[in-house]
Amino acid sequence: MPKMKSHSGAKKRFKKTSTGKLRGRHAYSSHILEKKSPKRKRQMARPVAIAPADTSRVNKLLGKKK
User: Fold this and answer.
1) pTM score
2) How far apart are CA 24 and CA 3, in angstroms?
3) Given strand 22-24, what is the order of strands in its sheet?
4) 8 Å CB contact between 63 and 3
């Protein structure tokens, strides 16, 4: 059986923390920034935890079995 490959796009977008949680970028942070407040843009610059509903999907893309 060949090895499973992890998704190249997911490798670049998500990081696993030491405790096993997933982190990624905020949504809506790349364009149409003129109407967004400076506070909102600052907060979007920091990574955010991936929602529990999406963790299984992201883990699968990163090459984890379950």
Assistant:
1) 0.78
2) 26
3) 15-16, 22-24, 48-49
4) no
Helices and strands in the chain: count of H runs, count of E runs: 3, 3
Domain ranges, ordered by start, for the chain: 36-66
The answer to whether 54 and 14 are in contact (CB under 8 A) is no
Tell me the per-residue pLDDT of 5-55, one tens digit each, with 9 for 90 and over.
999 999 999 999 999 899 999 999 999 999 999 999 999 999 999 999 999
How far is it between the farthest Cα atoms of the chain? 52
24 near 46, Cβ under 8 Å? Answer: no
